[in-house]
């Protein structure tokens, strides 16, 4: 059996993993050289793959890659990347030309959902789930949809982009050009900024969560998180009705999200009860790179519906 190679390309780091089935053969991280531009990022990806190939004594036969954005299925170039150097660039084709192997690209949230479905929390606790909604709530907010084990990509390649649904058209400006996106309310930086604006104090999100028992503004911050999370998730459930929701990212570490946040879904739901499991991930910050490796696995090659 050939090994599965994956790269998770992020704004601050890139990581390579090589899997033999479920076992990790090799794993290596390095900073993403944002200051070198697009070509420098491509060069760094190539160097990382080649370095891992030398360490293992064999080169990949194909490569899966998770990216902070999406490859437009109609134009072939990258879009919606907060690593903006990638936008408008034919990353897949450039890597294939340099490496001489097929490269399979998916959004990092799609890779997260794929990994938790097949290697992580969904496989462990909800193995019969047919529709999985995998959320990343961290510096940004995104999501991926897995249906019958395959990523749903969509006609425009944007399926699952929950973070850029508009919750309030009068809300904060988003980097995407709209106002009031889910990300501008529910990302870690957005929650910290709201607390800072109200309290005139600067706390990290874990500190805000810890202070909620005695700090009125911290309590308000979490109450607002629960309410807006419920509203935003209900919109997804009304349309997709997933069998399980798994939450990754730093905001997902807030315990009350799974109790009070969950209870906030029902008032916005087109159903008299809400029974969908909302679970924590099992793979931590490894999920994205594991999902990227699964893209290169025979079963999941071009693991994209739509």
Automatic annotation (TrEMBL):
Statement: the UniProt record of this protein carries the keyword Cytoplasm: no
Pfam families: ROK
Molecular function terms from GO: hexokinase activity
Keywords: Carbohydrate metabolism
Protein name stated in the entry: ROK family protein
Species annotation: Aeromonas simiae
């Amino acid at each position: 059996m050939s090994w599965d190679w994956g790269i998770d390309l992020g704004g601050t780091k890139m990581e390579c993993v090589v899997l033999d089935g479920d076992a990790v053969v090799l794993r290596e991280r390095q900073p993403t050289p944002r200051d070198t531009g697009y070509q420098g990022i491509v060069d760094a990806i190539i160097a990382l793959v080649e370095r891992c190939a030398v360490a293992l004594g064999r080169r990949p036969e194909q490569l899966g890659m998770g990216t902070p954005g999406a490859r437009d299925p109609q134009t072939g170039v990258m879009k919606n990347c907060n690593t903006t150097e990638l936008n408008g660039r034919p990353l897949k084709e450039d890597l294939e030309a340099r490496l001489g192997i097929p490269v399979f690209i998916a959004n990092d949230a799609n890779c997260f959902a794929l990994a938790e479905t097949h290697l992580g929390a969904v496989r462990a606790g909800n193995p019969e789930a047919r529709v999985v909604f995998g959320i990343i709530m961290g510096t940004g907010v995104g999501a991926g949809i897995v249906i019958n084990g395959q990523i749903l990509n969509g006609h425009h390649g944007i399926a699952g982009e929950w973070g850029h649904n508009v919750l309030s058209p009068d809300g904060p400006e988003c980097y995407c050009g709209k106002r009031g996106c889910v990300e501008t309310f529910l990302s870690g930086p957005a929650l910290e900024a709201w607390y800072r604006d109200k309290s005139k104090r600067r706390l990290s999100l874990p500190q805000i969560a810890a202070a909620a028992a005695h700090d009125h503004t911290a309590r308000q911050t979490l109450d607002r998180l629960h309410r807006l999370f419920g509203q935003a998730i209900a919109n997804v459930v009304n349309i997709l009705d997933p069998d399980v929701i798994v939450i990754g990212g730093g905001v997902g570490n807030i315990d009350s999200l799974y109790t009070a946040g969950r209870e906030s879904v029902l008032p916005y739901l087109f159903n008299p009860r809400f029974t969908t499991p909302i679970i924590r991930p099992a793979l931590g910050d490894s999920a994205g790179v594991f999902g990227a490796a699964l893209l290169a696995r025979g079963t999941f090659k071009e693991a994209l519906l739509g």
